[in-house]
Design brief:
CATH architecture of the largest domain: 2-Layer Sandwich
Bound molecules: adenosine-5'-triphosphate, magnesium ion
Strand content: 5-15%
Pfam families: PolyA_pol (PF01743), PolyA_pol_RNAbd (PF12627), tRNA_NucTran2_2 (PF13735)
Number of helices: 20
GO molecular function, one term: CCA tRNA nucleotidyltransferase activity
Subunit structure: Homodimer.
EC number: 2.7.7.72
CATH class of the largest domain: Alpha Beta
Family: Belongs to the tRNA nucleotidyltransferase/poly(A) polymerase family. Bacterial CCA-adding enzyme type 3 subfamily.
Low-confidence stretches: none
Largest sheet: 7 strands, mixed
Shape: elongated
Length: about 400
C-alpha cells in the first residue's frame, strides 16, 4: 500500500527521516501513528524507528535528549517539536512477565516489528509513504481485529500488560479480539498480578473512555481478566456487565467521568470509593473529584431533591455528575442541575461578603474554633438563601451566633 499525501504530522517529521536515510541508515514511522492515519483518526505522537544506533542518531542531529537511551530511544528536537527515535531492537528473556531482561539493538526492521504487541501496531511507513506490512496488519485493520503478533500466550508471558492493551484497543477502536488472542487472555489472566497497578490503571482508564467501552467491559468478564484487576473480585462480575449494558452507544469523555461512572456502578459509599481509588493508585485530584461527584450522585439517586448546600459542595464537579447521570438515567435533564448551580448565590467561600479577618477586626470574635464555626454557619445560611450575602447583615448574624454561644 502506498499513501499519496501524508498527513501534516508526518510531513513535519520528514526532514528527520531524510537526514537519517541520507546518512545510510533505514528509518520508518511506526506504531500508533501509522495505525491511526490508516483509520482516519487523529494522530498523537509520531514515533520513528531506525537501524541507526543511538550514538549514530546523536551524531546526526544537533539537539537531542536521552529520553530512554537504555532501550534505544533518543529524542530529536526540531523547530520546537520533539520526535522519539528508537533503534530497531529485539527483547529477550522476560523472567518477571513485564520487562525484558535484555534489549538488543538490531539492524533489521522485521525483528523490531516482531516484538510489537498487535498486528495493527506492527505497521511501518517509509518516507515515501510506502506501508511495510509484515504481519498482515492491514488485513486486520480492515477486518477490525486485534490479533497478537506471533503466539499470543507467549507474548502475554513476555509482558502481561499486553492483555490489558488488547482489551483497551478493542474498546478504543471498536475492534473485536481475535479468537486465539482472546483465549490466551483467558488462559494467562493470572499473570496480570505481576503488573504494576499504575500501568494497569493507564490501560483501564483508556478502555473506559473508549467509544466501545461496553465491548471492553464484556471482554473483561468473558475472559475472567477482571478478577485480577486491583480490588475487583468475582462478586463484581454482574456489576461490570451492568456497567457495559449502561454504556452501550455512550462514551465517557474524561478520566474523572469514567471513574465516577465505575464507582457508581459498583455502588461504593464515600469511604469505600476513596479506598478503591487509592488502591488503584489514582492521584489526589482525581480522587477528590470522583468522590465528590459520587457522594452527590448517591444523594441524588436516593432522594432526587438535593439541597443548594449539596450543590455548593459539589462545585465544578457538577459537570462530572451531569455526564454520569446522562449515562445511567433514562431521561435525565442535563440542564436541571446546571440551572440550579448557576443560581447559587455564591459558588465559593471567597465570595462570602465577610472574611475571618473582618470578623476579628470588628471585635465580634477572637481567632479560634468559634470563628470557623461562625463562618461555616454564615456560608450555609447564604447558600440556603436564608441570609443575604451582605457584609452588614452577615456581621449582625455573627453577633447573634456569638451571643447564642455564650448563653
Ligand atoms: P496510543 O494511541 O495509545 O499512544 P500506541 O499504539 O501509540 O497507542 P503506545 O503505548 O504509545 O501505543 O506504544 C507505541 C507502539 O509501541 C505500539 O503501537 C506498539 O507497536 C509498541 N508497544 C507499546 N507497548 C507495547 C507492549 N507492551 N508490547 C509490545 N509492543 C508495544
Ligand atoms: Mg503512542
Amino acid at each position: 500500500m502506498h499513501i499519496e499525501s501524508l498527513p501534516s504530522e508526518f510531513q513535519k517529521a520528514l526532514p528527520i527521516l531524510t537526514t537519517i536515510v541520507e546518512a545510510g541508515y533505514e528509518a520508518y514511522f511506526v506504531g500508533g501513528s501509522v495505525r491511526d492515519m490508516l483509520l482516519g483518526k487523529a494522530i498523537h505522537d509520531v514515533d520513528i524507528a531506525t537501524s541507526a544506533y543511538p550514538s549514530e542518531i546523536k551524531a546526526l542531529f544537533e539537539k537531542t535528549v536521552d529520553t530512554g537511551i537504555e532501550h534505544g530511544t533518543v529524542m530529536v528536537l526540531d523547530h520546537g517539536a520533539g520526535y522519539e527515535i528508537t533503534t530497531f531492537r529485539t527483547e529477550s528473556g522476560y523472567t518477571d512477565y513485564r520487562r525484558p531482561d535484555e534489549v538488543i539493538f538490531v539492524r533489521d526492521l522485521r525483528e523490531d516489528l516482531k516484538r510489537r504487541d498487535f498486528t495493527i501496531n506492527a505497521l511501518a511507513m517509509n518516507k515515501t509513504g510506502e506501508i511495510i506490512d509484515l504481519f498482515d496488519g492491514l488485513l486486520d485493520l480492515d477486518k477490525k481485529v486485534i490479533k497478537a503478533v506471533g503466539n499470543p500466550s507467549e507474548r502475554f508471558h513476555e509482558d502481561a500488560l499486553r492483555m490489558m492493551r488488547a482489551i483497551r484497543f478493542s474498546a478504543q477502536l471498536d475492534f473485536v479480539i481475535e479468537d486465539k488472542t482472546l483465549l490466551a487472555i483467558n488462559k494467562e489472566a493470572p499473570l496480570l498480578e505481576k503488573i504494576a497497578i499504575e500501568r494497569i490503571n493507564v490501560e483501564f482508564t483508556k478502555m473506559l473512555m473508549g467509544q466501545a467501552a461496553a465491548k471492553g467491559l464484556f471482554a473483561f468478564t468473558k475472559t475472567g481478566l477482571y478478577k485480577y484487576l486491583p480490588n475487583i473480585n468475582i462478586e463484581r462480575e454482574l456489576d461490570l456487565v451492568a456497567a457495559g449494558l449502561a454504556l452501550k452507544h455512550k462514551q465517557l469523555m474524561t478520566p474523572a467521568v469514567a471513574w465516577t461512572f465505575l464507582i457508581v456502578q459498583l455502588g461504593l459509599d464515600d469511604k469505600r470509593a476513596k479506598l478503591f481509588l487509592k488502591q488503584w493508585k489514582h492521584g489526589n485530584d482525581l480522587i477528590n473529584m470522583v468522590t465528590s461527584a459520587n457522594h452527590f450522585i448517591r444523594l441524588y439517586k436516593r432522594q432526587t431533591m438535593v439541597t443548594n448546600w449539596d450543590l455548593y459542595q459539589l462545585g465544578n464537579n457538577v459537570a462530572i455528575v451531569n455526564a454520569v447521570l446522562a449515562v445511567i438515567m433514562e431521561d435525565f435533564d442535563e440542564n436541571e442541575l446546571n440551572k440550579r448551580y448557576d443560581m447559587l448565590t455564591i459558588k465559593t467561600k471567597r465570595e462570602l461578603a465577610i472574611t475571618g479577618a473582618a470578623l476579628i477586626k470588628s471585635g465580634v470574635v477572637k481567632p479560634g474554633p468559634l470563628m470557623g464555626k461562625i463562618l461555616l454557619q454564615l456560608e450555609q445560611a447564604v447558600v440556603a438563601k436564608t441570609l443575604d450575602n451582605n457584609a452588614a447583615k452577615l456581621l449582625a448574624q455573627a453577633q447573634v451566633i456569638v451571643e447564642g454561644e455564650s448563653k
